[in-house]
Design a protein that fits this description.
Keywords: Iron, Iron-sulfur, Lyase, Metal-binding, Transit peptide, Tricarboxylic acid cycle. The protein has about 750 residues and is an alpha/beta fold. It has 3 domains: about 5-40 and about 50-315, Aconitase, domain 3; about 320-335 and about 345-495, Aconitase, domain 3, CATH 3.30.499.10; about 550-755, Aconitase, domain 4 (Alpha-Beta Barrel). Helix 8 links the parallel strand 8 and strand 9. The radius of gyration is 25 Å and the shape is globular.
């Protein structure tokens, strides 16, 4: 089945004229990102947009949601007044399946445990014309790549790794559920015009080096916030030499550098993938407009004239990398890894090696990893670590089983997990003797913050390619370098692992019996969506209150977060995923992972009403019950990581009035704005140090809130002194209206109610 063929035909028929118009407006050659962005302006572009400054209304082609975020997104959409989604949309059930025993048993358990949520998602999808991918069908990003992504398109998805679709030449951006509601309701989607980072790839990879090593290298160069507010566009002969799924791996993990999205130009590798996944018609259509699906030749020739930043990487010289622990941008070449292990005191024994996930579960990944695994048997080696394999979709799983790769993994003790996110997002019932013991795991996933995979702060998680992870599973040592180190086999012989070999696409084609797709009803008007008032998993939403029209005074400091505070710290996943459709229940995890500046502890803040220390959510609930608002203060890149809007909705629900930080991650700042929260930054970052534990706080100037207009935070200290601190914001006039109304959704309700 080819989805959205009429939509793609229409877009491609209009693309040449839209690109020509953009080239005329800018009066210069265009990057590929610029072609797609200007072609997706909600109304025809009539002027140039300044990168990093102008907010632009866009019209994405489609929306994708995973089950954990879809619950809140669709609960919001259910209140907006539309009878059907305005653009093609899908729900993918991949987040709620916990990895514990193995694929079949874990999937059966998940279907039983989450039946209420799955039934809700299936029925509300049916009602509003949304495609539904059942539990076990696969991880959202892999399924999108196999079925929906197409060169030159634009989509948004309620997951931070939505940019995976950039591997097929699509601008695909992770957002919160409120953004998805806008697009599904047929409204323009607002985004600040991204800056452009060009990455020129020369040469060609060989041996142990893989596409994963490109993004691991880039993460080391740009860090977790170096791509913030920018689209990363890869180009050059080296880019064209990488497989389509390898490109997707690079784009997927671009989320770890804070990039809006990442993008590759249309080429033969993409065309081959489209054909292999049954989309020959799309490939033929793309071939017809190929020149508009690549940067102009002048851009590739002199990139510094067209990108805000240019990085060049020679793939001939690139070696495998291992990134971590605790952050995805600590990049170490494999040749330096043994030295780094010794210097940093990282646990050398690799206790679990995990391959797969949305980042690295393609046929190419699996076949190359299987070539390493097969050597364990032929060379008399055994695995020294636990070893798990997570297929990205049922299409991939069925095909690699048919081609014998699952049997290869089974022969060395590998455990195949369900086609789901699993350990990558903390959905992992890990068997651990002593949870406090320092230990090392290595994954081919994308994110490795503390507690991310198994909930244990003691776990040192490292990220590498599936091939390197498989080698680690056999060697059992983080200091092992498969490019030069030898292993001792069962006969006492010294042996070396050969370079991995694999196939870009399955030689005998992809196969699947049941991909797991459920089409919506043509007319869903008669479908009833029922949410029990007694449910602990689902809760109908009540609108957030509108702004009262005054400055916001006599607030309490809830927490001053120290250091890295990701959305995992603000709203943990793992066991909390079961409450993603129940705002009040999931709010009990609000900021429990953030480190309190004043005592160095997590989930322990001073309650100014009692003088005692207690959990963050319970303290905030007491403030709310007393009619007192609160402020959260944070450090740099606050809210990096997942797109989960719960990290914005929970503080809003519990009565936090403002988040004041040194800097925000893009998605989280937008999520806060959408929910009617004040998202503010210190004009002088050193003023963070002036915030004291017992402060009573006023936010002054709110009544004059306007684009570019600073606010003032008055810190009333316990000793009677005060500090007045200037605060910046990035609200435009539309976003100020969201704030005044209490949320963006409140405005949408009004709009449809008056239509």
């Amino acid at each position: 089945m080819v989805f959205d063929l009429d939509l793609i035909k229409k877009l491609y028929s209009e693309l040449p004229a839209k690109v020509a118009n953009a080239r005329k407006l800018l009066n210069r050659p265009l990057t590929m990102a610029e072609k797609i962005l200007y072609a997706h302006s909600f109304t025809p572009a009539a002027r140039t947009y300044e990168r990093g400054k102008d907010y632009v209304d866009f019209a994405p082609d489609r929306v994708a949601m995973q089950d954990a975020t879809a619950q809140m997104a669709l609960l919001q959409f259910d209140t907006c007044g539309r009878k059907q989604v305005a653009v093609p949309s899908t729900v993918h059930c991949d987040h709620l399946i916990q990895a514990k025993v193995g694929a079949k048993q874990d999937l059966d358990t998940a279907i039983d445990t989450n039946r209420e949520v799955y039934d809700f998602l299936a029925s509300i999808s049916n009602k509003y014309g949304i495609g539904f991918w059942k539990p076990g069908a696969g991880i959202i990003h892999q399924v999108v790549l196999e079925n929906y992504a197409f060169p030159g398109g634009m989509m948004i998805g309620t997951d931070s790794h939505t940019p995976n679709a950039g591997g097929l030449g699509m601008i695909a951006i992770g957002v919160g559920g409120a953004d998805a509601v806008d697009v599904m309701a047929g409204l323009p989607w607002e985004l600040k015009m991204p800056k452009l980072i060009g990455i020129k790839l020369t040469g060609k990879m060989s041996g142990w080096t893989s596409a994963k090593d490109v993004i691991l290298k880039v993460a080391g160069i740009l860090t977790v916030k170096g791509g913030t507010g920018a689209i990363v566009e890869y180009f050059g002969e080296g880019a064209d030499s990488i497989s389509c799924t390898g490109k997707a791996t690079i784009c997927n993990m671009g989320a770890e550098i804070g990039a809006t999205c990442s993008l590759f130009a249309y080429d033969e590798r993409m065309a081959g993938y489209l054909k292999a996944t049954g989309r020959e018609e799309v490939a033929a259509l793309a071939d017809g407009v190929r020149e508009h699906l690549r940067p102009d030749t002048e851009v590739e020739a002199t990139p510094a004239k067209y990108y805000d930043q240019v990085i060049e990487i020679n793939l001939d010289e690139l070696e495998p990398h291992v990134n971590g622990p605790f952050t995805p941008d600590l990049a170490t070449p494999i040749s330096k890894m043994a030295e780094a292990v010794a210097a940093n005191g990282w646990p050398d024994a690799v206790e679990v090696a995990l391959i797969g996930s949305c980042t690295n579960s393609s046929y190419e990944d699996i076949s190359r990893s299987a070539s390493i695994a097969a050597q364990a048997k032929t060379k008399g080696l055994k695995t020294s670590s636990e070893f798990t394999v997570t297929p990205g979709s049922e299409l991939v799983r069925y095909t690699i089983e048919k081609d014998g790769y699952l049997n290869t993994f089974d022969e060395i003790g590998g455990v195949v997990l369900a086609n789901a996110c699993g350990p990558c997002i903390g959905q992992w019932a890990r068997h651990m003797d002593d949870p406090s013991r320092k230990n090392t795991i290595v994954t081919s996933f994308n994110r490795n913050f503390a507690k991310r995979n198994d909930g244990l702060a003691s776990t040192h998680a490292f990220v590498a390619s599936p091939e390197i992870v498989t080698a680690y599973a056999i060697a059992g040592r983080l200091s092992f370098n498969p490019l030069k180190d030898k292993l001792i086999n069962e006969k006492g012989e010294e042996v070396m692992l050969d370079e991995p070999k694999g196939f870009e696409l399955p030689p005998r084609g992809f196969s699947v019996e049941d991909p797991g797709y459920q089409a919506p009803a043509e007319d869903g008007s008669g479908v009833q969506v029922v949410v029990s008032p007694e449910s602990s998993r689902l809760q109908l939403l009540e609108p957030f209150p509108a702004w009262e029209g005054t400055d916001i005074n006599n607030l309490r400091l809830l927490i001053k977060a120290k250091g890295k505070c990701t959305t995992d710290h603000i709203s943990m996943a793992g066991p909390w995923l079961k409450f993603r459709g129940h705002l009040d229940n999931i709010s009990n995890n609000m900021l429990i992972g953030a480190v309190n500046f004043f005592n160095g502890q997590t989930d322990s803040v001073k309650n100014q009403l009692t003088g005692e220390y207690g959990p963050v959510p319970a303290t905030q609930r007491q403030y709310k019950a007393a009619g007192i608002g609160a402020v959260v203060v944070g450090d740099e890149n606050y809210g990096e990581g997942s797109s989960r809007e719960h990290a914005a909705m929970e503080p809003r629900h519990l009565g936090v009035r403002a988040i004041v930080v040194k800097s925000f991650a893009r998605i989280h700042e937008t999520n806060l704005k959408k929910q009617g929260m004040l998202a503010l930054t210190f004009a002088n970052k050193e003023d963070y140090d002036k915030v004291l534990e017992d402060d009573v706080i006023d936010i002054v100037g709110v009544t004059e809130l306007a684009p570019g207009h600073q606010l003032t935070m008055v810190l009333k200290h316990q000793d009677g002194t005060q500090d007045k601190i200037k605060l910046n914001h990035t609200y435009n006039q539309q976003q100020i209206e969201w704030f005044k109304a209490g949320s963006a959704l409140n405005l949408i309700r009004k709009q449809f109610a008056s239509a």
